[in-house]
Design goal:
The chain has about 240 residues and is of the alpha/beta class. It has 9 helices and 11 strands.
């Protein structure tokens, strides 16, 4: 086990920025639960591990640091005992079955929760337009709770992709068909829009049906990730 050098600290800190993640093909995963899952399932993706523990079970590069050193490289308010620098996985565009399309989701927490929810409901692919938050943002990774390695997140020209995709397309909108009264098909795309503006007009125009989750209270809108979960649950209930 090596001591964490100043150069290594600089390299890991740089991965907080998208341009460096893209350049190096690496990102950071923090916390014992997620790091241990990667060690168990995808050890080949790990570049190195940094830990405050004197002993950590991993047959690869492990760097030791103290609490102060971990605080320098962690994106968490409370630094964890371990983090891993990981090679970006190669996502495959599996367009079979039910998929999700994200139109300009900006909040990293929302994106991470949508990925985790998709994994729960067996959705294998999420299509994102180029303005959607970076899937390797530390906050996204934290929110996925390891689901990032089980769901294909593919960035694309969403308009072009939907135009050529031979599937039923449902857009989550405010004034569409009542979700609870709609006949839903499983070979479909569920389109979720921006947190503030919803699905853009050009993307909504490509949908076959607009779906609305009925409101029974006074809130103006639903969180995008929550809406995605409700929609997926109802689709699966009709499968």
């Amino acid at each position: 086990m090596e001591s964490l050098s100043k150069n290594k600290i600089k390299t890991i800190r740089a991965l907080a920025m998208k341009k460096f993640r893209d350049k190096e093909g690496l990102f950071v995963v923090e916390g014992e639960k997620t790091v241990n899952e990667i060690i168990r399932l995808y050890p080949q993706l790990i570049d190195c591990i940094v830990t405050t523990s004197d002993q950590y079970s991993f047959d690869g590069s492990v760097y030791h640091t103290d609490e102060s050193g971990m605080k320098q490289i962690s994106s968490f308010k409370t630094a964890p005992d371990v983090l891993a620098v990981v090679h970006k996985p190669s996502f495959k565009e599996d367009l079979s079955g039910l998929i999700i399309a994200l139109d300009d989701i900006q909040d990293p927490g929302n994106l991470g929760t949508i990925i985790r929810t998709a994994d729960w409901f067996g959705v294998r692919t999420i299509l994102c337009n180029q303005h959607t938050a970076d899937v390797f943002n530390p906050k996204v990774i934290q929110s996925t709770m390891g689901a990032i390695f089980r769901v294909n997140v593919v960035y694309c020209d969403l308009k072009e992709k939907l135009e050529t995709l031979n599937k039923k397309k449902y857009a989550a909108i405010m004034n569409g068909t009542d979700l609870y009264r709609a006949d839903l098909v499983q070979d479909a795309v569920i389109i979720i829009g921006n947190e503030g503006n919803g699905v853009s007009t050009e993307i909504e125009n490509l949908s076959d049906t607009g779906l609305t989750i009925p409101k029974f209270g006074e809130s103006e809108s639903l969180n995008a990730a929550m809406a995605c979960g409700i929609l997926l649950s109802h689709f699966r209930a009709q499968s």
